[in-house]
Design a protein that fits this description.
conserved putative lor/sdh protein from methanococcus maripaludis s2 fold, alpha+beta, Elongation Factor Tu (Ef-tu), domain 3, 20 strands, 339 residues, four-stranded antiparallel β-sheet, OB fold (Dihydrolipoamide Acetyltransferase, E2P)
Length: 339
Amino acid sequence: MNLSNLNWLTRTPAMACVLALACIVSSLPVAHAADKDDEKHTEHEGAKKSPKQVDKDEKSEEDEEHEADGKIKLTAEQLRKAGIQIVKAGPVSVRQTLPLYGVVTPNAEGFQHIAARFPGVIRQLARKPGDNVSAGEVLATIESNESLKVYNVTATVSGVITNRQGAVGEQTTDTPLFTIMNAATVSVDLNVFPRAVGQVKSGQPVLIQQPQRQLEAEGRLEYVSGIANPVNQSIIARASLKNTEGHWIPGHFVNAEVILSETPAAVAVRNEALQTLDGETVVFVKEADGFEARPIQTGRTDHRYTEIVSGLVAGESYVAVNSFILKADLGKESIEDDD
C-alpha cells in the first residue's frame, strides 16, 4: 500500500478504526511468544536444585550400590578404628549354670605365724605390715637372754606381712612377731540359699567374676557347708582360685556361676554379636562384598554363647564385638531413605 492510499483511508473515521484494530491483532503473536519465553525461563529456574538437594543426590549416587544390596562395606582401617572384631562361628559347649554371689577370703592354709625361737630382746625389726617378703628373708634380729647371741628371725613362706607385734628393745613373748599371708591361692565363699542347695556339690566347676575390675577365673567347689546361717538361711560353698599375680583381693565381692551341665552345640556365636532388626534376631556375617545382617534362629544360651539352630554355618565369619555399630549404620540409611 502506497502513502497516498493510506492518507485517503485515514480520512474516513470508520476506516481509521479498522486500521488501528488490525495493528493490535498483528502484535498479539509477538506478545504470546514473549510470554512463552518467560514461562520457559521460569521453568528452567525452578528446575535448578538447591545445594542441599545436589549434595543429597551426589550422596545417593555414591551409596547406590551400598543400598542396593543391603550390605555394609568397611575398610580394614574403619574396622580397626571402630573396634569391630570378627571371629568364625563354630562348635562350643553351652553351659547350664547357677548364679551365686560371694566374697574373696584368704586361704586359711596360706597364713604363717612367725615367732622368736628363743626368748630375748628385739634388736631390729626389718619389715612392716604390707611388705612383700620372700621365704628366707630376714624379718627381725633377736638377742637371746641365755646366750646373749644375736639370731635372725626369717620368713618361712613368701607373701605379704599382715601383722607385726613388738617393738625394738622389748622382750619377745609367746605371741608371734609376724603374720604372713601367702596369697598364691585364695578362697571364694559363695552364699547358697535353700532353693538351690540341692544343685550344689563339691567338685563342680565354677566361674568367678569381679565385674568392677574385669576379672574372671575358673575354679572348683572344694567344700559345701552342712550348716545354714540362721539369719539368712544360706549355706557356704567354698571354691579355691589361683592368685599368683595377686589380682584377687580378699574382701572383694564377686559374682559366680556354678556349672551344672555342659551341652555341645554345633554352631554358636557370642551373645554380644546378636542384634534385633525389624523384629528379627540377626548377626552381621562377613561376605566377600560386605557385611550382611543375616536373620538366624537361636537355641540354648549361657552367659557367653548362644546356639545357632539355623541361618549360620560353622566356619562363617561374623562380627563378635561392636556389632551395634553396623546396626546403627543400617538405621541411619533407613532414615536418609525416608527423607
